[in-house]
Design a protein that fits this description.
Elements lengths: L6 H7 L4 E4 L2 E4 L2 H17 L2 H18 L1 E3 L3 H9 L8 E5 L4 H15 L5 E5 H7 L3 H15 L3 E11 L2 H6 L1 H18 L3 E5 L11 H22 L7 E5 L10 H15 L7 E4 L22 H15 L4 E3 L12 H4 L4 E4 L1 H10 L2 H14 L8 H8 L8 H5 L3 H21 L6 H7 L6 E2 L11 H4 L2 E2 L1
Parallel strand pairs: 3-6, 4-5, 4-11, 5-6, 6-7, 7-8, 8-9, 9-10, 10-11
Antiparallel strand pairs: 1-2, 12-13
Helix pairs in contact: 2-3, 2-7, 3-7, 5-7, 5-18, 7-9, 9-10, 10-11, 11-12, 14-18
């Protein structure tokens, strides 16, 4: 793949597959377009100025023409909460950290094979930073992957852990909240119509009552909910999630869920609220790494998860409970999540591990050299633990090197990822969920204004206007 250096070269690159006339995009031959889309995606990621912005606009518009639409899963989750949809599946939320295009293609190949539509593609606030993927780039890269693989239908793109940092909030509450609000503005403008609000870092277990423990959590979650409702397009209800227990800490309880939800609803004062609730049931992000670099076995409290999901649906008519930190669980665990009514499960580090374990030695060594040069190994931490913990941070600084891996390496990694996605889609029972998605989800059709000059760097995602 290569960067196309001008807008004229960009449009020439898709000749025979698509045509651009002023601001109107027409697909003339989808097969040819698929063959030529790679350089458009690469330019959208690594190009500069107007040609980069035009490539991103073009990918969005091609998606609109072909029926690939960023959308909200809110209606599906609320239908589950009401009991209108049989809840026998768990939606995977896949964090695409590295090699976005190649990983996205593997996801869509698996989705096509199983006719799966209930899939979330997500990136966390922290990941946006260390993987170097701002929202508009992230969205348009995945649209390009969907075009390449012939996927059709809604793309549920999610902001995972749009988190209020406890440390940042304690230092300067207004600054920390503003940072999250600004990111929400950027993300929704880019097509993130699903956002997990995470103010659970502010739960204070030192208070004597559950309401007091959860108060700052539910109050700020409600404030960020109202902010999202002010930002969302008229024909979109952004799917929002809240969180009652920080992942990696003590397990959540049904009583905590009630304390959060009751306070949250009071604070909302009638505004449309969350459609799911994240809980803690025994996992941690990335797994627990042993000194030799292997992962400790972790058990999920499935009965607690069952009770929390049931309480969320039965009392508050939302989709259910969300499980975080699950990608490094034993393979035998995944079929249990649909059995206990889990509405959504978050998967990230396991895919990162597959990439690192199967990448050429040169890129792995370059990543570890970057880690050695920029991060400090903690006392008592083995080298294996150090690299395992920090290697996710090499995706952004070495992003182009990861994208430029030899075709054979990309194909090998892509096939392994696809196999794992197929396994997960089977275990989570999302085969043939395109129909339930089509029956419940409103698909927003938005055309964007073609850029006529380069956006200010870093501001395109915020300023991206929607045209009728």
């Amino acid at each position: 793949m290569k960067v196309l250096e001008s807008v004229d070269l960009l449009f020439e690159a898709i000749a025979g597959g698509a045509l651009v006339a002023d601001s109107k995009v027409t697909v003339t031959n989808e097969s040819i377009l698929k063959d030529k889309i790679d350089d458009v995606v690469y330019t959208a990621v690594f190009g500069k100025g107007l040609v980069r912005d035009t490539a991103r606009w073009l990918l969005w518009e091609l998606g609109q023409v072909l029926g690939i639409y960023p959308a909200s899963i809110h209606e599906l989750y609320m239908a589950i909460g009401r009991g209108d949809v049989a809840h026998n599946f768990t939606v995977p939320a896949i964090n695409v950290r590295g090699m976005n295009f190649n990983t996205g293609r593997a996801i869509f190949r698996a989705a096509n094979k199983y006719n799966a539509g209930a899939i979330l593609l997500e990136i966390a606030r922290s990941e946006i930073g260390y993987t170097g993927q701002r929202p508009y780039e992230y969205v348009t890269s995945l649209i390009g992957a969907a075009i390449k693989e012939g996927f059709r239908g809604p793309l549920f793109i999610q902001g995972d852990h749009f988190q209020v940092s406890a440390k940042g909030y304690q230092a300067d509450p207004d600054k920390e909240l503003t940072a999250v609000k600004d990111l929400m503005k950027e993300a929704i403008a880019a097509g993130f119509y699903n956002i997990d609000i995470d103010t659970s870092t502010l739960v204070d277990l030192d208070f004597p009552t559950l309401d007091e423990q959860q108060r700052l959590n539910y109050t700020l979650c409600a404030e960020l909910t109202r902010h999202a409702r002010d930002l969302e397009p008229d024909d979109v209800t952004v799917s929002l999630g809240g969180e009652i227990g920080e992942v990696g800490h003590k397990n959540s309880t049904v009583e905590e869920l009630h304390a959060f939800m009751q306070g949250y609803r009071r604070a909302l004062d009638g505004v449309t609220g969350i459609s799911k609730i994240s809980v803690q049931t025994g996992t941690s992000h990335g797994g627990v790494v042993l000194p030799d670099g292997t992962l400790a076995q972790v058990s999920v409290d499935f009965e607690t998860l069952r009770a929390l999901s049931a309480a969320a649906r039965d009392t508050y008519s939302i989709g259910g409970a969300v499980q975080h930190g699950a990608s490094t669980l034993p393979q035998s665990a995944f079929n249990k999540f649909p059995e206990v009514g889990t509405v959504e499960i978050h998967l990230a580090t396991g895919f990162q591990n597959m990439i690192y374990e199967n990448a050429p030695a040169g890129i792995v060594e370059a990543a570890y050299e970057y880690i050695r040069a920029n991060f400090t190994q903690k006392e008592g931490q083995t080298t294996d633990q150090f690299f395992y913990k920090e290697r996710k941070r090499a995706f952004g600084p070495l992003k182009q090197q990861w994208w430029d891996l030899p075709a054979e390496a990309q194909a090998h990694i892509g096939k392994l990822l696809q196999d794992q996605f197929e396994f997960l889609f089977d275990q989570l029972n999302i085969k043939d969920t395109k129909k339930v998605v089509a029956d419940t989800v409103t698909v927003p059709k938005h055309h964007r204004v073609r850029p006529t000059k380069a956006a200010e760097e870093g501001k395109l995602e915020i300023a991206a206007d929607l045209a009728d």
